[in-house]
Each structure stands twice: as structure tokens, then as C-alpha cells.
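WARN retry 2 of 3 for item q-0093 after timeout on previous attempt; input resubmitted unchanged.
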Amino acid sequence: MNAKIFIAGSGGIGQAAGLILSESKVMESSIYFGDIAQSALDQAIHFVEKGCTGQASLVGVLMPLEGSNEQLDEVLTQCDIILDCLPGSQAPRMAALAKKHHCHYANLTEYVQETKDVISISKDADTAFVLQTGLAPGFINILAHRLYEEFCNDFSVDIVNSMHMKVGAISKNAPSPHYYAFTWSPIGVATEYLKDAEIVRNFKKMNVPALSGLERIIIDGDEYEDNFTSGGAADFPDAFAGKVKDLDYKTLRYPGHYQWVKNTMSTIINSENRIKALENIMLENIPSVEDDVVVVYASVEGKDSNGRLRRKEKSYKIKPSFVGNQRLRAIQTTTAAPLCEVAHMLLKNKWKGTILQSKLSTQEFLNGPFVTAIYGKYN
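OK item q-0093 returned
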């Protein structure tokens, strides 16, 4: 099978997805990169060509700022799938183009309203739309779902006390006062710090302010703090209604970071765009780094059929690694690999319409070739 895959957005995640797919022995791919800047397209193509140990099929497509153009329409007519690595605000636009050109579609965004818009667009589509399928949302949700399946099977129950999902894309080192360094999109960080989070408490779905649930946790002997942030729970607050008493997603950071954010946000008073204002302040004070770490933790807790309290949990600590000849940051591999896995699943299955994270096969996903290459085989 030679799949024609359009990757919208040629930044770090798009480049990683292009390289992972081009290096794959599972399926052959012709990759079309789409971006609004020719320099970004040239950089992405050079990155993948340099990283490939074999021959890569790569084409750059210059996209307009809005809508489509003749060249983009012509390319999408030939493509099997769109992998949307653009900012979340662009998701409805790319989903509409996927529907128009009968392409499968998968995206990464944690943006809640844009996800609702894509669900509306994809309802009567003749191709499949898999939403929120990167790291968080994405991998973390399927991992938690698998733990829930195992818990219910092992302990003969169908209702549990809690499902907790936690992910941190952090730097290897974190000096004061902010105890942080950027390893991915600054606007994405600012957005998840300011938009409400969806959680479940006592079986009821509710919205809570981001950064309103500060706690500490030890994972594999290392201490972190975690807090509510937007989008990471995907569709789980609805999908597990009546099955999980308390459910939430939190972002992991080194201790001390969230106090710095709280102090910083207290200085943003009269701004019309608090997200942009927070992004600008963080960019002035927090550097970007290449040497990153991604920490993943999920747990399901409840009582077994005999009334004894039990917990199933799993954690990962992913560091930068080589794909082909290129060293990729941990945030690149942990986000791009789930996206590529879903592309593989879409091209194998005859799916149509909206497919949310709770509907994906946990076994097929977690033991798929792209995911296991980064996270290891799920036991």
C-alpha cells in the first residue's frame, strides 16, 4: 500500500510525522507537506530528506492563509488522509477540506470548541475523522481506557472510583524562578493554562478553571506537581458517564512552576487577550530547549468485587531518540507516533464519520507499530 498523506503544518510535529512515516517499514507513503511559508516547507523537506535512511517521496504545497487554492485542491483530491498539525484554530478549516475532498482526517488539537466544530462537520462524511489523537489528548486517554478495561476485567466490576490522566512535556533541567523551559508551542501552553478544564466529580461532568487543582505526585521516585489544564480529557467526561466517579486530566510540572504562573497571571489585569498576554510574558522569561522529557502517568482506582480498594497504574518517561538519522525531541516522537498510528489504522479500516478517543481499540493502538516504536510494547 502506497498511501498519499497530506501533513498540514510543517513545524516540529509535522516534520517528525513526515520522518516517521517515511522511515516506516509497515507502509509506503508519499508525503505532501502543506504550509503558508515556502521557507517552512523547504525546511521540513530538508529535515526529512536528511533524516531518511532510504528514499523519501516528498512534495511541498504552499497553502493560503484561509480557505483553499487551486494547487491545494488539486493535491487533496489525490490524497488518502490529512494529518492536521496546524494550530487548533485551523481544525475546522482543514476538516472541511478533508470532507470536501473525501480524505480521512486526524488532528492533535486540545481546543474544545474547535473539536465540537469538527464533530459537526464530520457527522455525515463518507470518510473517518479521528480527533485529538496526539499525546494529550490522544495517547494518555487510550492508556487510561486500557487500564479501565483491565481493572473491570480483573476485578469483576464495571464502575470505578477514579481515572486520573497526567502528562508533562518538560525540560531535563528547570532553573528557578519558573522551573520550566518550552519544549513545544508557547501559545498552546498559554491556552491550556487559561481555558476551563472538563472533569467529572461524583459522576457529574463539570467545568473548572484551569490551574485550580494543584497537587503533588511522585512518579518513579521523582516529585512533580500537577494541575487542571484544558483539553486533555478528550471525550472521556462524556464517554465514561456513570462508570467513573471522579475523572480528570492534569499537566505535570516541576514543583514551583505553577506558583510562578499564578504570580505572573496576577499582573495581567486589563488585557483583552489574556492568552496572548500570558504567552508574551512567558516568551520574555522562559527559554526554549531541545533536551526534553515527556512524563506520562495514568491510573484507575476502585474496589474489587470483594470490596477491597485496588489501583492499576502505568507510567512512562520518554527522552529524545533517533528516528533514522535525526534526533527527535521527546515531545515530537510522543505526539507524532500516535498520529501516525491512527493514520495506519484509518488506512486499514473502513471507518466513516467522527471517531473520538474513547472509540479507538486500545489493544490495536497501544500495540501498533508506530506507538510501540516510541513507547514500547504494552504488556
